[in-house]
Amino acid sequence: MFRFLTALALCLPVTAQAEQLKVATSFTILADMARNVAGDLAQVNSITPPGADIHNYQPTPGDIIGIADADVILVNGMNLDLWAQRFLARIGDVPVATLSDGVTPVSIQGGDYDGLPNPHAWMALDSAQIYVDNIATALAGVDPDNADAYRANALRYKQQIADTIGPLRDRARALPPERRWLVSSEGAFSYLARDFGLQELFLWPINSDGQGTPQQVRRLIDNIRQAKAPVIFSESTVSDRPARRIAQETGADYGGVLYVDSLSAADGPVPTYLDLLRVTSETIVTGLDHD
Ligand SMILES: [Zn+2]
User: Rounded to the nearest whole angstrom, what is the distance from the C-alpha of residue 43 to the centroid of ligand 1?
Assistant: First the structure.
């Protein structure tokens, strides 16, 4: 397949487009971050589409077409996108950069993956900035002529991330202690909770585990009652039915949809990573910030 596509590319007329760096990422959030660091110097594609389950994604033969001629591939690491690394081995010797390298991991609590690093490290200010620096280093590694541009873009983007999340983090930290609970479906917010000074409760530790089993529901109901946690949220990539049922059962408010594993389509509520950070953080803080 790779040879066929290379041969095909050689037959096409040379255009300015062909000069652009080609970057592939395992999911939409990393693709948007990479676009911000690359500017118009690269064409960036995500293997998974918006809304996909990034933990258990099954790549299709068609997926390889968009990334077969990539110059560099960006993955999350921390076992999240092992499927991508297996799949990418098929396209040959392309450099792969792991964007969570250098992040201090938070462990998964409970379930089949107890104790392993929680992979959702893009959901906190300091670790997001490490991702951005790793992207700039990866792009500069394959395109050293434009290293300065990548570094300048990364610096600006890191400031935008700080401006987006900083004020919401301050509001979260100022909440009354008894309302500082983040209850979700997946335990995907350990980094955000650490940043915002919130305690976490969730239905299942990670989307690779069973989702919404009767035992998980019963345990969360008990924990919400004990903690008097005021609000339960659920994430855009999973069913909200267990969360709504638990809200009814416990008297907690249902706080709405959080975005964590995937951007929306371009015309949806979170087409960019900055939108995702802002909408998710605002939904959490607004949900917790009233009686
Ligand atoms: Zn997840």
Answer: 26
Does residue 204 sit in helix, strand or coil? strand
**Alpha-carbon span 124 to 75, nearest angstrom:** 17
Pair 182, 280 in one domain: yes
- CB atoms under 10 Å from CB of 163, counted, come to 10
Residue 2 Cα to ligand 1 midpoint, Å, equals: 31
Q: Which domain holds residue 274?
A: 172-288
Residues lying with their CB under 5 A of ligand 1, a single-atom ion:
188, 207, 261
Kindly give the distance from the C-alpha atom of residue 168 to the centroid of ligand 1, in angstroms, as a whole number. Answer: 22
Looking at the fold, whether 159 and 190 belong to one and the same domain comes out as no
80 and 218 fall within a common domain:
no
What spacing in Å lies between the alpha carbon of 260 and ligand 1's midpoint? 7
C-alpha to C-alpha distance for 289 and 281, rounded to whole angstroms: 12
The verdict on 207 and 73 lying in the same domain is no
The mean pLDDT values, 10 residues at a time, for the chain of 291 residues are 45 53 96 98 95 90 82 95 83 90 95 94 96 98 97 98 96 97 97 97 89 93 98 94 96 97 96 98 95 64
